[in-house]
Amino acid sequence: MRKVSAPQAASLLRDGDTLLIGGSGGGHAVPDALLAALGARFSETGTPRGLTALHPVGVGDGGSRGLGHLAQRGLLKRNIAGSYVNSPPIGAMALADEIEAWSLPQGSLSQLMREMAAGRMGLFTKTGLHSFVDPRLQGGRQSPSAKEDLVELVTIRGEEMLFYKPYHIDIAFLRGTTADEDGNVSMEQEAVTLEMLSEAQATKRCGGIVVVQVKRMAPRGSLNPKMVKIPGILVDLVVVEPDQEQTYLTPHSLGYSGEARIPLDDIPRLKLDARKIVARRAALELFPRAICNLGSGIFTGIANVAAEEGCLDAICLTNEQGNIGGAPASGGDAGAATNPDATVDQPYQFDFYDGGGLDLAFLSFAEFDAAGNVNVSRFGGKLVGPGGFINISQNARRVIFGGTLTAGGKPKAVQQVEQITFSGAFARQRGQPVLYVTEAAVFRLGDLGPELIEIAPGLTVEEVCGRMGFRPAIAPDLREMEARLFGEAQIGLAAHIAARPARSQSPRLAGL
């Protein structure tokens, strides 16, 4: 292992290389100093050109950091990512067809890193079937120049599956907290560990170079071996960035890293608005010991509501980046969690999700349509990508989508979504229960599409339908949404959860 500067590491990239980038969202374990050095090199010299950027999770601050450093015409030829929401400049380049762009499920890309590390053919999974990732629809392509088939439809033992092809990696930019003199890297101040180990292993399997950005160095043999996430045998170069922040918004939270537990009183109470009403109504679906995922967006507010009502301990909230328990963070820090009980590597979290481990998934919608399809990946002239949405929504035992019924006066319930991120027909085929929760009404997925089952006090059916781009079926037992959702006082969520049937356990445990 050698210690080098960020510009020295960036100088190793050559025209046409594939760069694997670790990290998540708004700065979680993002090697920003390395990306900044690469962007500066291209700005000054015009090289390297035509790179492929591969990153399972979206990376950026919504502006110039993260992948934003690479948003320079000619630097990238293609971008393959789980999400573009954190790097709008890259998304804009894709929409303008200045780069070849694909967005694939975050979980599938994360698991693919592990398959590549082992030298296997690629990833075989049902995740993505009947969504825009399915080759029968768009194959994950997000720009006209993206021609290559990165995903194939295959049949194994009579069942349809998707095959995600592997990639050859030339250089990986990863991040940790501390490196010792042998290159062993720990991640004790990071909020998530992601797939750093798999990414380093996959890169070495390809004969590539592993560069790790860290905050500090430590003497040889001083790191607890159980804290080492990237062994030194996989690390070629280390770049020390003493000012490394935990995220772009938070320099260092002990509650995020698990170094200390912080009072839940510090979790902010949400103001009463449409978003809080949606989060409250969705929270009524919780039950004791329920294992849940809170997607980024409106439903991160469920953690705030549960903290306010004093019932976080009654349920288990998780996020796809690997945190289990605690209160998932919202806003720019989404992906972290305050006071998690455990943090596992991201591929294993998605293994759990794909295996049906989630009782409830709470996910935002950008739009839903008359067939029950949901779109979060591309809408209104924006390229967002699915992130972990496809893995989570497709495999949870029950899924609750949430959002406001309109945005800027325009319906979010439309006749046909722009892009299918979740297939209503596929959910019906598998018997998956689905709710669509808004501040004005609640719908369930019926035989033909969304069916209106609850309506906000003071509204009529015609007023709700007038805010929609299609007329839904009306349930014969249509009822009002509970009035307590719309007041300033607490809604009694703790008592509500306690009164519901708990998560079922194995019958073998009943006699103990």
From TrEMBL:
<dbReference type="InterPro" id="IPR014388">
    <property type="entry name" value="3-oxoacid_CoA-transferase"/>
</dbReference>
<keyword id="KW-0808">Transferase</keyword>
<dbReference type="GO" id="GO:0016740">
    <property type="term" value="F:transferase activity"/>
</dbReference>
<protein>
    <recommendedName>
        <fullName>Acetate CoA-transferase YdiF</fullName>
        <ecNumber>2.8.3.8</ecNumber>
    </recommendedName>
</protein>
<comment type="function">
    <text>CoA transferase having broad substrate specificity for short-chain acyl-CoA thioesters with the activity decreasing when the length of the carboxylic acid chain exceeds four carbons.</text>
</comment>
<dbReference type="InterPro" id="IPR004165">
    <property type="entry name" value="CoA_trans_fam_I"/>
</dbReference>
<comment type="similarity">
    <text>Belongs to the 3-oxoacid CoA-transferase family.</text>
</comment>
<dbReference type="Pfam" id="PF01144">
    <property type="entry name" value="CoA_trans"/>
</dbReference>
